[in-house]
Automatic annotation (TrEMBL):
Pfam families registered for this protein in UniProt: DctP
UniProt record, GO biological process: transmembrane transport
Protein name in UniProt: C4-dicarboxylate ABC transporter substrate-binding protein
DNA-binding found in the keyword field: no
Native source species: Desulfomicrobium orale DSM 12838
Record's signal peptide: 1-24
């Protein structure tokens, strides 16, 4: 064998080896998350687990917030096949009457364990799944995001302290705080840092200590109140129904297992990292609300729940699940 022929054979073999992973995948799916490139670890972990669980038969390419479509359009884009999978938040989707309940009404669950009980044992997952089915997609389940703590320029030890401030907060939590006489301000995340730096706002409800470190909000809001207003905010994983129905059962089992595995990934990292951040960056600047203030928050939250219950019979069922649970654990009389 001549040297030229040997070199040519090596080149061909190398080329085929490089191509083999592409041909090994039977499904190549696009997933868009609403998370930014620096915070999309949960979606990337899900993609890794899908590939592992399906023996490489399914490859998921992750796109971050806004890369392909607006976050509010993730549901309709998965339905019509523009993308095959999505990670979003229920309250982003105007099509859903239960979206805000799914994402987390204020004070409705105060730990990931409580959220798990509500979703898996008390029927919330089944209820939400049926709503996504009506919307034309397949619901793979929730993934836990982060707890909702409050970072501020001055310490917040009470609701009275908060009433002296302008607080950036969104959604149902904004409704709850506004009903308590707190001046709430709505703005996109990209405007928060400058608003805090210039005094346009005095506090922000955005995430946990780890996220305040990642966003550098701690530089202009060095205090944190760690009484959660909801814990955790909840995301959703969905897949195109036509593709799902065409997949063999073993592939579907692998994808569903990956969704279940991904549920705790980002939350667990964030909660652990928050302990380090609280001990370091927020050292001696951590406060909580009193028991009396927490009861006032719950009372105001329930009024918001009742507003959500009026949206549809399914929303009313979801709120009843929340109320029954709150009464069972003594949070609500």
């Amino acid at each position: 064998m001549t040297r030229k022929v040997s070199v040519l054979i090596c080149m061909v073999v190398t080329f085929l080896l490089c191509l083999s992973p592409v041909f090994a995948a039977e499904y190549r799916l696009r997933l868009q998350t609403y998370y930014s490139p620096s915070t999309a670890a949960g979606a990337k972990y899900f993609a890794e687990q899908v590939k592992k669980n399906t023996g490489g038969k399914v490859e998921v390419q992750v796109f971050t917030g806004g890369e392909l479509i607006a976050s509010a359009n993730i549901l309709k884009s998965v339905k019509n096949g523009m993308i095959e999978m999505g990670q979003g938040m229920g309250h982003h989707f105007s099509e859903l009457k239960t979206g805000t309940i799914e994402s987390g009404l204020p004070m409705s669950w105060m730990s990931a364990t409580e959220a798990t009980l509500l979703y898996d044992e008390r029927g919330l997952r089944t209820l939400i799944g049926k709503e996504y089915e009506k919307a034309g997609v397949v619901y793979l389940g929730p993934t836990w995001a982060a707890s909702y703590h409050t970072a501020s320029k001055q310490p917040i030890r009470s609701l009275d302290d908060m009433r002296k401030m302008k607080v950036r907060v969104v959604g149902a939590t904004a409704k709850m705080l506004a009903s308590l006489g707190i001046n709430v301000v709505t703005m996109p995340p990209e405007d928060i840092y400058m608003a805090l730096a210039t005094g346009q706002i005095d506090a922000v409800v955005y995430g946990n200590a780890a996220e305040y470190k990642e966003t550098k909000f701690y530089e202009v809001a060095p205090y944190i109140n760690i009484t959660p207003l909801i814990n955790p905010i909840t995301d959703t994983l969905i897949i195109n129904k036509k593709i799902w129905d065409e997949m063999p059962s073993d592939i579907r089992v692998g994808i569903q297992a990956a969704a279940d595995q991904a549920r705790w990934y980002w939350y667990s990292w964030g909660e652990n990292e928050s302990l380090n951040v609280l001990a370091d960056i927020f050292k001696d600047k951590v406060t909580t609300f009193s028991e009396a203030d927490q009861k006032e928050l719950v009372k105001a939250a329930v009024a918001v729940w009742e507003q959500e219950a009026e949206k549809s019979p399914e929303a009313a069922k979801g709120v009843k699940i929340l109320k029954d649970f709150a009464q069972a654990i003594g949070r609500l009389e």
